[in-house]
């Protein structure tokens, strides 16, 4: 009966011989072929979906899934402010190009004030002075990969080193943001700098770090030191000019020197934050370039 | 009759094994749709026939979607089983595997300069990307690198990252399946790269230029499909850069 069905029939035999306790297939073929093939035939896909119970199960399953998705969507806003984050990612290529140029050469830029539109700052797409999160995030990931590359060329690479670099850079970033927040709180500055803004500003230094590491890979230690000092200088100027508008009061921001302990303290704070950047840039890259 | 039984044999042979049967028997009474990979409907003794939408929601890389297509002989099967089966959709359509769309998407990837049609990404099809991931792992195997785990891990993390980024950057959101599908399709040129690695080593200058070119090709087509599907203007390079980072990691695996 089955000339070439030897192995298959052998495989089928155990199932067919213990038909009743292991009857895996309910005969869903609507009795069309009779009970003879009940234990052996696989019901086709359609019949199983056509059964009312299975269609109910399908519907139940989909409602479960959509309910789960709804719950995640509702609650994710509590932990991660998605709409606020969307503002920082509303960028386009022109903005990113200009901002990168500004990060590396901020000396000629005149107007550092973020434009406002009815109390809300304009999206980064339309104003080069607005902070964004695209550049810091991409720069961070690129920094990790370039660090892996640099270690690879020195034969010091292993996949766990990447994780180590990533977590140490992330830890330093968190420390820096927390320190800045603490000092802003202590100096009681009335500013509209949010935490995400601070993360964005602290993340801009990774661009300079990448430039330093790449030049170190291409041109050796002299190239590394040269370009790193240039990037340190530019990020220092960039931070001072950006934070001055946010931390200091209006009068001092316009260049008029206002005497007073409060403003002096704020000026020192701005300079301290800006000076931290080159420090971290050197600290996080010098061990990568030999 | 013997012919019929022969046919039964073939059909049975390729889609079932004792393991499937005993495994699914254990769960036939569970009633919990999403606990196990072989989802426990009351009638679901055949793991191979679970609808793909369910499978995709659980785990994109089950591979179970694949098996039934090899046993696909719809007309002959249905003609034997009577009226219940004649008015059912063919198996591939039910499983959501549309060969025409798969071919279209593959062509879109292979012609990076051709303008992409935004609507082709409307259905998330993970069958094609699965094939490409497996093919990539297979070509790596030919060079002696057994790194399927790395390939899957990196693609999972990369897809997750791209999913978060695209959701934050675009006006309309994306689903994870769509991101995984696009990134999987654009892995096709990377398979070319790793098959070159079989023939000659990629660590020379020629290899570096070839690697850079292929990374650019992959990320360019991925970003092209993404911006046409999500209607993001002026952001193609911004989307291409993280894709390039992801494909760069794949290239690292192939080269080193």
From TrEMBL, chain A:
Membrane topology: Multi-pass membrane protein
One Pfam family, short name: YIF1
Subcellular location: Endoplasmic reticulum membrane; Golgi apparatus membrane
Database matches in InterPro entries: Yif1_fam
Stretches that traverse the bilayer: 133-152, 164-186, 198-218, 224-244, 265-284
GO CC terms in record: COPII-coated ER to Golgi transport vesicle; endoplasmic reticulum membrane; endoplasmic reticulum-Golgi intermediate compartment; Golgi membrane
Region (Disordered): 1-20
GO terms of biological process kind: endoplasmic reticulum to Golgi vesicle-mediated transport; protein transport
Keywords annotated in UniProt: Endoplasmic reticulum, Golgi apparatus, Membrane, Protein transport, Transmembrane, Transmembrane helix, Transport
UniProt family annotation: Belongs to the YIF1 family.
Function: Has a role in transport between endoplasmic reticulum and Golgi.
Protein name, entry field: Protein YIF1
UniProtKB/TrEMBL annotation, chain B:
InterPro entries registered for this protein in UniProt: Yip1/4-like, Yip1_dom
GO biological process: endoplasmic reticulum to Golgi vesicle-mediated transport; insulin processing; protein transport; regulation of ER to Golgi vesicle-mediated transport; vesicle fusion with Golgi apparatus
Membrane-crossing segments per the record: 150-168, 174-200, 207-232, 238-255
Membrane topology listed for this record: Multi-pass membrane protein
Keywords: Endoplasmic reticulum, ER-Golgi transport, Golgi apparatus, Membrane, Protein transport, Transmembrane, Transmembrane helix, Transport
Primary localisation category: endoplasmic reticulum
Pfam families attached to this UniProt entry: Yip1 (PF04893)
The Yip1 domain, residue ranges: 109-253
Protein name: Protein YIPF
Gene name of this polypeptide: YIPF5
